[in-house]
Design brief:
It is built from three helices and no strands.
Length: about 100
């Protein structure tokens, strides 16, 4: 393995990379980051539900005849909803556990 191409890798470079990575990790672990990702998940589940409803309307009106696409859209919406509910339940459990901690 030839490592001669790694000329500019010095400890200060590695320290800078590690510091920037820790800032990203710290930002992801903040409550606002977690809340934002949860809201994104809710929005994605809502979009999947809206697409499933639209596909069902198209099928009922006779504009779409492919039942496979309708079933896929409905399953996608169902999975997104179940996943969102599971994450919500876990977050509530964690919140309750934190609130029950004695300081």
């Amino acid at each position: 393995m030839d490592i001669s191409a790694l000329n500019n890798v010095v400890p200060s470079y590695l320290t800078d990379v590690a510091n920037s990575a820790s800032q990203v990790d710290r930002q992801d672990k903040e409550f606002s980051g977690i809340l934002q990702s949860m809201m994104n998940m809710v929005n994605e589940a809502n979009d999947a539900h809206n697409q499933a409803e639209s596909a069902q309307m198209q099928f009922e009106l006779g504009y779409a005849t492919n039942t496979h696409e309708l079933n896929a859209a409905q399953e996608k919406a169902d999975i997104a909803l179940n996943y969102t509910i599971t994450v919500r339940d876990r977050m509530l459990e964690a919140y309750k556990e934190i609130m029950n901690m004695q300081v």
